[in-house]
Amino acid sequence: MASKNRGRPTKNNNNILINDISVEYLSTKTDKFDNTIVYFKLLDAKSKLKPVIDTQVNDKDIKLSCIWTTDTQDIILKIKEKWINTSTDDLQPLTNYTVNADFTAYSLDTDTGNMKGYYIKIPKIKKKKMDNMLDVNDDN
């Protein structure tokens, strides 16, 4: 008997890909486990992350430690340097970028039980062009 989903890719609940997220690069720091962590501020509306946030709403056991909100309600993305498809030396502080974010699920058995969550991979990052920049080489 033929499958109803013939020709369609299987649904993957382990990855949530969100394209064209506007972010601002803030800084790179080393955490207490000697991981290099890159911080970006979300410039898009929080609703851009709705697919990931809805996953946590539907399963209270899922932790989104890669996304957090500051006291001023800014949304910060926290990404290990090894998951970014560029050198952090190429990133300029307080500069806007467009990224594709691949939120990848993990499940980890610990002494206190099973821990589930997501981490972020950035397969594509592009410096955002400023629309209102003046051309200083204009001879007019």
How would the blueprint of this fold be written?
Layout: E1 15-30, E2 36-42, H1 50-58, E3 62-63, E4 67-69, E5 75-80, E6 96-110, E7 113-127
Parallel strand pairs: 3-7
Antiparallel strand pairs: 1-2, 1-6, 2-5, 4-5, 6-7
Could you explain the architecture of this structure?
The model is unreliable at 7-11 and 132-140 (pLDDT under 50). This protein has one domain. The chain has one helix at residues 50-58; strands at 15-30, 36-42, 62-63, 67-69, 75-80, 96-110, 113-127. A hairpin with a 5-residue loop joins strand 4 (67-69) and strand 5. It is mainly β. The termini are far apart. It is 6% helix and 46% strand. It is built from 1 helix and 7 strands. A 7-stranded mixed sheet has the order 3-7-6-1-2-5-4, covered by helices on one side. The longest helix has 9 residues, at 50-58.
Order of helices and strands: EEHEEEEE
Biggest sheet layout:
7 strands, mixed
Total DSSP helices: 1
Gyration radius from CA atoms, angstroms: 18 Å
Distance between the termini: 71 Å
Helix content: under 10%
User: What does the overall shape look like?
Assistant: globular
Mean pLDDT: 84
Number of domains: 1
**Spatial order of the strands forming the largest sheet:** 3-7-6-1-2-5-4
By helix and strand content, what is the structural category? mainly beta
Instruction: Give the uncertain stretches in residue-range form.
Output: 7-11, 132-140
Number of strands: 7
* Percent range for β-strand residues: over 45%
